[in-house]
Hints:
The protein is an all-alpha fold. The protein is 82% helix and 0% strand.
Amino acid sequence: MRSGLDRLRHAILFEIIALVLVTPVASALLEKDMDQTAAFAVGMCLIAMGWNALYNWCFDIALLRAGRPLQPRGMWLRAFHAVVFELGLFFVAIPFAMVMLDMNFMEALMAEVGLVTFYLAYAYLYNWAYDLVFPMPVEAVAFAGSGDGR
């Protein structure tokens, strides 16, 4: 499994890149001030970072308990990982958007559908790229693939 520091790096890089990509576009599309959109984005970033760390840790444990290797992760497993992550975050994001962006339920729902669409693709691509740039330690991959529980 990845170390705690590696998981922290993963989460921080994910959110910084997302903030740079999403904030100006969301501000323009939602017709909200950049300050208001940035405050919402940073708040969601903090929520998502906590969820990201917890979710990825639980996902790795679930893979190990199922006798599956942590690496490599095929296209379908990555897609499943991204969809379940975004669904969990979706239920927190709607009320948060309603409050932070002064939106009604339908406006927040539509904004979140747009963000989830972006983040599904982004999470898939980011995690794939992260694994290429920062590969899993060899011993973790060997351990996960051994299936003997050691």
